[in-house]
Amino acid sequence: MSKDTFDFTRRGLLAGAAGAAAMASLSPALITPASAKAPQLGPSRPTHYRFTLGDFEITTINDGAIPIPKVYPIFGKNQKIEDVQAFLAKNHLPPDKMSISFTPVIVNTGRQVVMFDSGYGEERRAKGAGKAAAALAAAGFTPDQIDIVVITHCHPDHVSGLMENGKAVYPNARYVTGDIEYNFWSRKELLESSDKNMARRAQAVHNNLVPLAEKATFIKPGADVVSGITSVEAFGHTPGHMCFHIESAGKRLLIFADTTNHYVVSLAKPDWHCAFDMDAEAAVVARKKILDMIATERIASAGYHMPFPSVGYVEKQGSGYRWVPVSYQFDV
Questions:
Q1: Rg of the chain's alpha carbons, rounded to an integer?
Q2: 111: domain CATH number?
Q3: Range of the domain at 29
Q4: Closest CA to 321 of 299, 281, 292
Q5: pLDDT tens, 29-80?
């Protein structure tokens, strides 16, 4: 730095200090309201994200998120707690708490409006989820415009938004889910299960999906929901859990539902067990199969528990994978 520059900078600093002192001497009465601080408004989350896929229009819907005060043993239950916590910290994540979000997907084919999963509904609204119906309105849809509701599997966060106050939220819709999945969860004996989680999940099905069974179609993997939307087997998370392949005008998207439940752990460590998976080893096999397909074929995907807008890509990384969130790929 030259002497001239130093002198100029010093003079500027001295002048600034003098100005600050002069401002401080002003009477409070001379300070205008425009200088008052704005109140803090609290966290804000987007309600929806929309893009085109060939001739289809895709909208992801933010049902909200629920804080959970632990990570282990929900994730990495077949690992040591210190290894799980160290891995989380390495990836800039809290080692002892997390947030899980929920994202239904709407596919407008131009002929039908197809919604995948319904969110948590009133069951968890007080906890921060169950916002799908409100987000749907913000996205420009009315409930009566939904023609088909597809249930990827029957856990409460996917079926509890089907009914509200004893009435169907989507009055004109027909419903589609896997026959293996529905036949398992609709058994009445599960309501009396000694496993409280099992009984709670079964109750959600009996409260929300069983009353709609007369309007439902029960399908097997490989079946078409409508032209361009095909079910894909991914059993393990639940007995009949399925993904759905979307294709229009040569563009593809895979809705992989709960094949993964965490955007870092489930992808980087696909062998790690997740407490949400009913058959942990079968879920590992399905997870690797689906993630490998997405990565190898370089297709876009939507994951129910991926960070909103829950759309992105999967890349191979070492012995696992990594999630690459969407940016402007669908805008150009």
A1: 25
A2: 3.60.15.10
A3: 3-33
A4: 292
A5: 544 555 568 999 988 889 999 999 999 999 999 999 999 999 999 999 999 9
